[in-house]
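Below is our example:

___
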Amino acid sequence: MPGWSSKLRSIPYGTLVLLVIAAGLYVALLANSAPPTGGGEERISQAYAGFFLTLWLWIALALLLVVGGVMGRMPGWAAITAALLHPVSGVAAFVALDAVSRNVSGAILFVALLPLLLAGYAVWARLPQLHEAYPPKTVSLAVWGAVALLTMGGFATGL
């Protein structure tokens, strides 16, 4: 059955597994990002949980981006941009998460939107059949421009 085995190879199982892991971490991060109701120890434990959830989520997103770039197709300049902006956006998300804990209005948007953009771009890069409908230059400019703006906004919430 040559048709059957080629279909199995075309399904990006690794990407799907990483996407499920990232989705679980994303949901846990959003659940953890409510402003703390208790005092000192609860705030500290929630801050640690937020830090580690952000760290592991950004590691999963980095792996998704690497898989998307290696196994799929990503413009060279976009790969360099991803390598530079991805870690900085993680720090900005954590800064915004801290702002959420201090009841800064709108800070949750940075925590919520950055991972969605990064994961969506990684999936787009991994599935080159999407490149005909959504051209690489346009998608890459739009996504990395939005990530740059959201990263600056995330840092601005911490001021």
Q: What stands out?
A: Residues 40-71 form the longest helix (32 residues). Helices lie at 2-10, 13-32, 40-71, 76-101, 107-126, 136-157.
